[in-house]
Amino acid sequence: MTLALPLARKVSDVFSELDKAIADFQSESSWACREGCGDCCNSPEVEVTVLEALPHALGLWELGKAELYSEQLARFLGKPCMFYVPNVSDSSLGRCSIYETRPLLCRMFGFTAQLGKDSLPRLAACRWQKLQGAELLAKIDGELKGGTLEVPLFGYWEQRLSELDPSQVLSQRLPINEAFLKAIDYVYWRQQAVLP
Ligand code: SF4
Asked: I need a surface site. Which of 17, 116, 128, 154 has the fewest CB within 10 A?
């Protein structure tokens, strides 16, 4: 079943544009994650907005699995993302089970930059990337400062998403499982035409 929720489609379009920008950066810089790493997912501190959880929530309704996942998500409040599948022997290694529809933040982590006080971009690398790629990171920083390399800017992509929600009702950051739960509810009420 295909449901009409133009907002979720617009969010997915922003995801596709960001993925392309990150792929360009990766191919020009050779910057990568630790192979098989899931360390950034393995934390109860991950927060995303309901807006960026909408594409996955919509997909769950379309598959007829939304109610089942709502019950499961309610049991994961206060825990790491329910969609993270850790390795049995080392929970810092693992995989995302919803990779295609994962939120914006999950796409950006490790591959976007923040602007420093000097207005120059600095790659927001995780601890594994810093450990494994210190030399490459120094080279990338140099190229970013020299303007010979472009990197997606965290603030720009956050703004692109936020512009889709002028009322900002769906743009508050929440613990990730709660955001998915609220996104599933939002799709339901939107289909009932109760929400604007
Ligand atoms: S949605 Fe995927 S990438 Fe994002 S925290 Fe969950 S498991 Fe990790």
From this structure: 116
**Ligand 1 pocket check: which of 102, 126, 174, 176 to mutate, most ligand atoms within 8 Å of Cβ?**
102
Looking at the chain, list the stretches that DSSP marks H as alpha helix, in order from N- to C-terminal side: 6-29, 50-62, 66-74, 104-108, 127-132, 134-146, 154-162, 176-191
Give yes or no for a contact between 161 and 55, defined as CB atoms under 8 angstroms apart.
no
Kind and range of the H or E run holding 100: none
pTM comes to 0.93
Closest CA relative to residue 103, chosen from 18, 163, 42: 18
At which residue do the structure tokens 């049991």 appear? 75
